[in-house]
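Write out this protein's structure.
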Amino acid sequence: MAEKNWHVGSMLPIAVHAVVCLAGAVAPSRAFARSDSFAPPGYLGNLDPNLIWEALIGGIVVCAFLAAIALWIHSALRRSKRARLRRNAFISSAMNNLNQGVVMTDAQRRVIFCNDRYLEIYGLTRSDLWTGMTGDDILELRRKRGVLAVSADDFYEKAASPNGLISELPDGRAILVKYFILPNGGSVATHLDVSEQRKLSRQLASTKQFLETVLDNVPACVAAKNIEDGRYIFANSAYERFWGFSRDQVVGKTARELFGPNSAANIEATDRAALLAPEGQYRNEFEVERGSAWRKVASIRIVVRNESNEPEFLLLVFEDITDRRSLSQELESTKKFLELVVDNIPVALIVEQVKDGRYLLANRSAETILNRRREEATGLTASDIFNPKEAKLIIARDEAAIKKRGMITEEHPISTKDGLRLFLTRRATVLNDSGEPQYLIKTHEDVTDRRQTESRMAHMAYHDGLTDLPNRAAFLQALTQMIEACEGTDEEFAVLCVDLDGLKEVNDVFGHALGDKLLIEVAQRLQDSARGGVVARLSGDEFGLIIDGKQPEAGLALAQQVGEAVAQEFQIDGRAVRAGATTGMSIFPHNGADGASLLANAGAALFRAKQKSRGTISLYQPEMDQQIRDRRVLHQDLSMAIKNGELSLAFQPQGAARPSVAESKIIGFEALARWQHPVRGQVSPAEFIPIAEESGLIVEMGEWILREACREAASWPKPLQVAVNLSPAQFMHGDVVRLVHSILIETGLAPGRLELEITEGVLIEDFDRGLALLRRLKALGVRISMDDFGSGYSSLSYLQAFPFDKIKIDRAFIINLGRNPQSAAIVRAVIDLGHGLEMSIIAEGVETVDQLAFLAKEGCDGVQGYLLGKPLPIGQYAGLVGRAETMELALKTG
């Protein structure tokens, strides 16, 4: 346009210039022609008038001609401008009606064109643009409007790539942007809304994936082949499994290339029949050769046609019917099985669709919650089923679970036909392949009865199951409450620990059932004596009482009443049963400021009372505390000794009973625990074993002893036996059978080389359980020995109940041999008894040659004692166990 305007403005000067030049050329020539001398041009009077007129007329003609030319040129330029404007308007109209946005820039990146579609796509108007606006400016404008999420550099880089840039708009639309650099340095960018195409593409991909997944999970073999050349184009997983090769091996091959000639001929014949079938389907059964066996298949061939109704490919479905099972029957059976499983789940199960909250599945148990048949609930929502208040709560919890995308567990009441019940509800969200919530699985478990049971169990946690008295924990709580009530006042109260005397004898003589009834009767008498005060059962035969009032008078009076009440004869199941009570007492605040101290001090007083005489009453004295403190310190030290490795094992040899020591061949060793205290030095087993028994440390200690003894014995070259003592506490706590079994496996010791020594206490505590454990131990292959035989009063009944491998005669009888005829008679009788029961007999505590000679003469099988050897580290007996070291056996020869 600037060029055009420049041409129009310059035509008049050119014409004038031409006229002047023409006049200047004509006039002078005529003048000089008429005059031979020079005359100034200002003197026109000397010129011929005709000549002047001719010159003027010629100039006018020339000017007119030039003006005509100028007018013609001006008209032509105007026509050209109008044509260009029409062309530009046409192009602009065409560009504005494109379905994609277009932006053009010049070499200086100034926007020279932007169509309406571009503005529409990004929600802009013409007024948002300004003269001289650059491409970067328009990108910044889009960023401010929230319709551009990438930087300018990323925009140009990705848009200029072959695939272009996909820009995601906040409203969900997707815009494909492509950017082109023009040869003149300018650029063109196109913006195409591809939201629908992307949606269709995703749907197509999803549909394709879905169809492939479905076909891969169809139990029948599915394949497809081109009709033109008979080459396979698809095969599913079942097809691969049937033929034993992958689909990659199948696709692109023909039947002749894949199968044997007979199978290929049958397949091709079936294909031809399908192509000739008028309805486009063909069903038949034929045989194919798979490996070395022939299989019969049921086949369906379907001719698939294209949009021109021309056959394009052949779809084939077949199944192996050699061992015929109907697919429909199998599916029906599977469906019934799943329905049976779901219906018999002991909790209500509901599956809900996330997108609309509609129930897709509910089992029979859910009918209680839904208050309708499950078939009627399918397709409904919570709002359709429950009242508005309940529905609102359920929907809110469902939404919370979906938002969390995890498991939410809670308890809440639900109205049912049986009334208001408490349900434990678990909500779990199932995500689809895109990681979005698709299903919500809800289970509802009726926990009403369970919570009631737990409530009862909570009661049981603080009450004794047999007598229903408060237990030790509840007693300590009551003590704490009494202390809080009496603090800051002059009030006193006494704590009594009452031990029931004679319960063990009742259990052994009449059985544990009658002993339990005795405990119930004693509990009732204690409550009657306490007159509403606190009475608790602290342990098996120990009770606790709290009595307020002036002390110690009130406490001593109650202890006396308790003793008299318990001393009265009990009539239980027609039997007269007698018992007694020994009592220890402490007083608040003089003997302790907290419940634990008061109870411990009352226990210390009870311990002192039982040491004096059964049936007595002892009041706590400060010196008792020192004794208890010493025992507690030793207990703590013992606990650390186990952890710090201060314990060790000594081994005492066991030999065959022969007339002399030289003839008494060593047959095994007994493992005995020893404790080297870092301060006290060697601590006697008689001191620390009872503490370990009372505190329960014997369980941990016994495990260590058993493991170390087995590990040591497994390393002996000679297969000698090793004996280990088991405490009754080990039978009462934990699985002693599993422990022994695992240690034998761990150490590699042959079970037959391990001898477990037990006392009758194992069977006294719980006869049936102890007997069952002994039988399980014996089934492992280990040997079981009855230790300290003769020291109890009921050993004979245990020998009758369990076939022990060995009986150990208590050292108390061996010591008196030669001095007490009764001891000799008892030992002789035990040997005869053991042999009559086919059990080995070993005597412990043998210290003299005369004792050894007597035992050998009477037929005793084995001996153990200082005469053969003291308990020493196994290194002292290296020669006896077959090790290379030569160690001298320390024998006491007497």
